[in-house]
Amino acid sequence: MTPSDIAISVAALLAAFGVGSVFGSSPVAWLLAFILFGGMAVVMVQTKMRAVVAIPVLIGGFVGAMAGTATVQATCLPGTCEAIANTAGVITGIGGIIGVGLVVALTVRSFDEYRTAIAAGKPPPTVGCETDELS
Asked: What is the pTM of this model?
C-alpha cells in the first residue's frame, strides 16, 4: 500500500464515522456509512486515484451529508423527522460528491494541461484557451 492509499482509506473511515454519527448513531446508519465510504475508498484505491483528488471528494460527501441532515433536523421537532433527515443527508451527500468531484477533476485537468505545455516548451494555456493558430 502506498501512502496515497493509506490517506484515502483513513479519509474514508473518518467520513464514514462522521456520517454514521450524524445519521442518528443507529447500527444501521453506521453500517450504511461504512459500506458507502468503504466502497468508495476501495474503488478509489483500485483505480489508482490520486489522494489530492480522492480526499476532497470524500470530504465533500461528508459535508454534504451533514448539511442535508442538519437542515432537516433544524426544521423538525426533535425525533420526528429521522427518515426524512437521513434521506436528505444521503441526497445532499451524493450531490456533494458529484459537485466536488467535478470541480476537482477540472482543476486537476487544468494543472495537467499546464504541466504538459511547460514540459513541451510551449507557453501555458491562457484564459479561454486562445491559440495563435487563428492569426
From this structure: 0.71
**Gap between the Cα atoms of 19 and 1, Å rounded:** 26
C-alpha–C-alpha distance, residues 109 and 34, integer Å: 30
Q: How many CB atoms neighbour CB 39 within 10 A? A: 12
Place of cell 468503504: 38
**Distance separating alpha carbons of residues 66 and 90, to the nearest angstrom:** 9
Alpha-carbon distances of 41 from 20, 38, 45, 125, rounded to whole Å: 16, 5, 6, 33
Per-residue pLDDT of the chain (135 residues; tens, 9 = 90+): 788 778 877 877 777 777 777 666 677 777 777 787 778 788 888 888 887 888 888 888 889 988 988 898 889 888 788 888 888 888 998 899 899 989 998 998 888 888 898 898 888 777 665 555 554
Domain range annotation of the chain:
3-120
Helix boundaries (H) for 26-124: 27-46, 51-75, 82-119
DSSP label of 135: -
